[in-house]
Each structure stands twice: as C-alpha cells, then as structure tokens.
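Predict the assembly for these two chains.
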Amino acid sequence: MSDSRADIFARLKSALDADGNLTARRAGVAARLAHPPRTEAPSRVRNVDPVATFTMRAEELGVTVNRVADLNGLGVAVAEYLRAHNLPQVIRTSPELARKKIAWPGALTVTGGGTDGDDPVGVALACAGVAETGTVVMASGAERPIKLNYLPETHIVVLRARDIVGTYEQGLDIVRGTKGALLPRTINWISGPSRTADIEQTILVGVHGPKRIAVVIVDEMV
Amino acid sequence: MHVSTDFPAAAKQALADPSLQAALARMRQGFVTARATAVARLPEFDRLRDEAKVIRDHVLAHLDAYLETFEANVHKAGGHVHWCRDADEARTTVLRILKGAGAKTFAKGKSMVGEEIELNTYLEANGIRPIETDLGEYIIQLRRETPSHIIAPATHVSKAQVADAFRAAHTMLAADRPLGTPDELLTEARAILREEFLAADAGMTGANFLIAETGTSVIVTNEGNGDLSQTVPKIHIVLAGIEKVVPTLDDVSVLLRVLARSATGQEISTYTTFSTGPKRADDMDGPEHYHVVLLDNGRSALLGGQFHDMLRCIRCGACLNHCPVYGAVGGHAYGSVYPGPMGSVLSPALAGIEAAKHLPHASSLCGACEAACPVRIPLPKMLRAWRDISFDRGLVSQRSKLGLVLWRFAARRPALYRLGASLAAKILHRPRTWLRWVPGLSDWLATRDLPPTQGATFMAQWKAQKR
C-alpha cells in the first residue's frame, strides 16, 4: 500500500510542479493554516439579537423553542413539553446534565447516562447554538453520549443563552477551545428533526433520528 | 468505473416511461423552486459562491501538501489513512479492514465513491452483507439498481414501487399490511433499519469534506443514518476521493453555506457531522477504530489539465436539477453513477471517452448547469472540450462528421455562408407555426419543435435597419 501512496503523490507532484514545487506548496499551506481567513458574517446575523434570530430560524425548521430563566424553569419546561405532546414523563439525560442541580418536577422520572435505544426521550446540553440557521452544536465526550442525540424519538436540547452565537465559525470556536487542540471525536450540528424526501419528494420527518426536537434556552445556568 | 451507455436508446426509452416522467416532473419542480427560494433569502449567496470557488482552487493548487497535512492530523487523532490508486485497491482495502475485524455486516451511509467503485457487489461476493441505510439508497439496493441522482438516489422510484420492494424483502412481516402512504413506508423502513444499525459489525460513511487542519471528515445528511452508521458499530470507515480536502473549519463553514442551498434548497441539512479519529479513552460512545480510505481513480490525471476545474465539484446535484436534458430523461439514461452535466464531464475522465462517448453530446449547452453551480465550474466549456476530443478520436458518427465538415466548409467562406443562411431563412419562414418536418432532420424533429425563422437573416435585418 505504501507503493500506492508514493504513486499517488508522484502523480500529484508531476501535475502540480508545472506551476511551482512542493516546498513552495508546503509553505503556502503552512501560511494559510497559520492565518486562516474568515469570511464576513451573513447580514442576517449582524446587529441582531442572536437569541431572537436563533429562535426564529429554529422554529422555521420545526423545532419547539422555549426560554426559561434558570434551572428550576428548565425542569418545568421539560415536563410541560412532554405533557403537551402526550409523551411519557420519563427522560434520559446526559451525565453532564445529571450532575447539575436541576429541580425536576416530582412526576418526572429522570435517569442519567447513555442510551441503547430504549429511551423515548433524550435530554442533553448543547455546546452552542448558531443563529444563522437555528442550528444546535453538540459534541462527544466523557459525559456526552452521541447516541442520545439520535436514538430517542424525542430530543430535548438544553442551550445556555450565552452560548448562542451568530455564525457557524463562532459556534465551532466554542467547541474547539484552544487552537491546535484535538477536536472532540464527534461534533454534531443539528438543524431540526431527522427528515427525508426520498419517497416521491414528500418531506417526511423522523427517519432514523428523532421525530421531534425541542430546545430550552436557559438564561442563568448555575 | 463502469459506464454502460447507449445514451440515445436509453433516452428514447426514458421519454416513453410514464412513471419515470411523473417522477422527473416532481423533482424538477421541487429542487429548482427550493433552491431559488433559499438563494433569495441569503443576499450574500453569490459572494459566498466566489469564496467557495477560491477555496477549492487554492486546495487543488496545493493538493499534495494538503493531503500530507490531512494524513498527519488523522494519525495524530489515532486514525488510519489508506491510499488507493484505483477502484480495485479501494475495494480490497475496505474488505481487508472488515475481514481483519471479523465483520460480517456493514452499515453504510450514502457514498457516491462507494457507487463509483461498485463496493456492494464486491463485498457480497466476499461474504460481507452491506446494508444501505440512507432511505433512497436502501430502496435502490432492494431493487438492485444504481442511483439515478447523486443526492436523491431513488428519485425515479414511485411509492407503489417502494411498497413492492418492501413486500418482497421484508417477508417476516404480514403480507397484507398496508403500505399505501409514504408514512407507512417510512415507519417500516425505520424499524427494519434500526435493528440493522444496532447489530452492524462495522459502519461506513462517505465524506463531503476532509479538513486538513484537524484531520476531520465531514458528512451532511438529513436522515441521521450516517451518524448511526458511524457511531454504533466498532469501526468507522470513511471512503472519499482525494480531491475532497479543504484547509480549515472556517473554510468548511463557507462551503456548507452554499452546499445545501444549491442541493435541496434547504438553508442547511439536518445533520452536519465532524468526525476526528476514533473514540477517546473516556468517551461514552463512538467507534473504536477510524479508517480513511482515499481514492484517486483518475482524479490526479485531471489536475492541471483542461478538466482541472471539475475537481472543484462538491457533489450538490444542482447541475442535474437544472439541466433540461436530465429533467427529460433522468439519471439512468446516462449509464453512469454520475449523471447529468457533472457526470457527462466526469464519467469520460474516469472511465475513458471511448466508453462514455455519447455523454458529452447529452447536453444542449444551454448553460443552466454553470449558472447554478455553487463553485462555478464551466461545465459547458468542458463538455465542448470532450466533444473536440471525441471528434479527434473518430468517435462521432459518419453523419455527424459529414455535417460538421460541411458546416466548416461553409463557415470558412462568409459569402457562401450568408447566401446559404438567407436561403434557409426564406425557406423556413412560416409565421406562427412550429416546424415539424425539414428534409434531413426528420428524426431530430421527432422529439423537438423548430421555431420558424423571421424570413431574413440577422445580418440582413441589421443592414436594413441601419439604413
């Protein structure tokens, strides 16, 4: 296989050397990675309230958005949402959320942990919200199971108001932390419920991932 | 890559297929309208297209250096990179990884490179059961077909045909169950494929982008199937062409702003997923192994040549959606897994012009493809270049050759050309009725109407008006 690698690089080199050499190309790559250009933010997120724009765009995608003041409000909002959609008052939360002192209403059964597909409702904390398209940004980690974002039929995303930013680039800045650090294994941008148009161009919701998504924006998460 | 093309015969058949024609009418309406709406909602769209083009051009001009960087960063994240010169190497590489892990079932996200190398047939012959998990790909896998569209593989299939395929395949379910609505079909597919995801030994995705800066592969889906395919099984294999690399996360953000809008007309696809290496020691889930299989298969030969710009392609499908020829005959008529304008440029490059000689001619050169392309690929120019090559290699019919020779003879003699043109303009002048019969053009006009001429040539009218 190393022969294949050498062959492919030799082909690329001979095609590209007409216009320079590999040393110059490596320098070009290093220079751009050292100072990556960033495009101007789309006008729809300039000089606007990111929370209001996020809410509007997420609702366009069929996401239910609620805003609460604090962790007490979060518990009530989740229970209310489940009641309004005739769903069981049983939730699986990511361990990250399970650690937080959330005042869950007594009627709600709450278990922290990952999922293998038997949980009707998954609740997880987002890293960021992106206003330009109402997208939430999730990441994998020691307390962040990715399957919880996909296997339950209902996905409830908890999002801190201060983590809502204008653009994709700003959302990725929050996830990546320091430059050069390894990214989390998985970063998911989620924009509405799972959907398809593969049968006669009819838009159907809830293909493999969640059938419904709610976002609860929390102002103060202490 | 396999191209089985007798485009004229296949096109004739497609035009006479009422079920296909109904499907194509739905597709033309859906995608084109949705794109126009999405573009109107983003005033920066054209600026972003220019930036997307610049990013792709920059990568191609530094392709080997970016691939080295990508590879080093995949290694840093604990993943493996496999380099494959051709389809055969890519197939055997995937099989070797699967056999090495003792895998028998293989959950696959949608991958056009997988179609290009005909991976499923090969794996089946070698004791692996591939399961397509994108609903459209699953439907065509059951029907044992190739995709007819690069982003909507089952766009040619009616819901009655989907129901037939499900009844034939899912024999464990009651034979008389209702499957008349798209919802019923979806519920059944969700249940069947959910079991497959949870049990699969290995998973695969394609890649919309590979990020050099971080060693990351990116996929864009609406269903979430690519996410389950790469999160539940122990092994994640990424299959991608070597041209897919981009410099940074910021660059991907620019490309993503034009990708979904150009493709389905969504502002963004439901799921955009960035995958970097295998799961970390303390991660709660994710694959234990991460392999990137990179395929050349003729791509490096395009670099720096007259089809170089084709390597900018981000596989959005806008050129298919806007092409009047694709819209009339659908994808299968092209006989290649890459149909439409992008396919008619790419297929001859990957499979040889001899095998794909009809494809550069399967276009009216109207320019709708280039006008819709998010990375501004000059598709009509490249189709003309393929026509030149096929003429030079004697791959056009005797009649076309004779016609071109006669036209060249006249075009080099302006006086003669003008005389001929003014005669034709007079003969073909018939107010307000379309022409259906012209000597020597009867088969051309069997499926086309020729507008009548104004009676005098442009040159003659220009002279008359100047006076």
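Helices of chain A lie at 2-16, 22-34, 50-60, 71-84, 95-98, 168-176. Residues 2-16 of chain A form the longest helix (15 residues).
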